[in-house]
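Friendly challenge for the regulars: who can give me the structure tokens for this chain first? No prize, just bragging rights.
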Amino acid sequence: MSKLAKLLLFALAIVLAVLASISGYKVGKQAVYPVAYGDYIVKYANQYGLDPFLVMGVIKQESNFVPDASSDYAHGLMQLTPETAEWNAEEMGLVDYDYIDPETSINIGCHYLKYLIDHYGNIDTALAAYNGGMGHVNSWLDDAQYSSDGVALDYIPFSETRAYVEKVNNYWEHYRDLYG
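First reply, four minutes later:
Bragging rights claimed.
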């Protein structure tokens, strides 16, 4: 085998190794950032004018795509409380619903997320309200210690909510990079 042929084979082996590494990296990242119920996410994100990758980020943080996930008082993929589900269902005209059902959870959760984004005009503020509640966020926005403009939060005093907003934004970016 000529020197040139050996060099070309070596170069090809390096290129294939790099491609395999990149491919393996992406497959590994997809295992860390799963997506389930993608059809429902896209359907309801589009219906409410949301970025589906943002919705994926919220679901990843809320339930890690476990449909029957439960915390102290919230349930389902989008971890809705009974009161939040009921209020949104009334606004949406839903009468007989199961807010823990994956499709319904995504529908109601997207409706609520869109409501919060429209209400606050700022995605991070809306995410803080999704996690920490509108009452807390409203009081933080009224306090110059936490918000300099009454729209964005310069500082979120609840560490859980502060971490929530950071994690959802991080997941949103990863989902957009992986699947966008």
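The CA atoms of residues 39 and 103 lie 9 Å apart. DSSP finds eight helices and no strands in the chain. Your move, everyone else.
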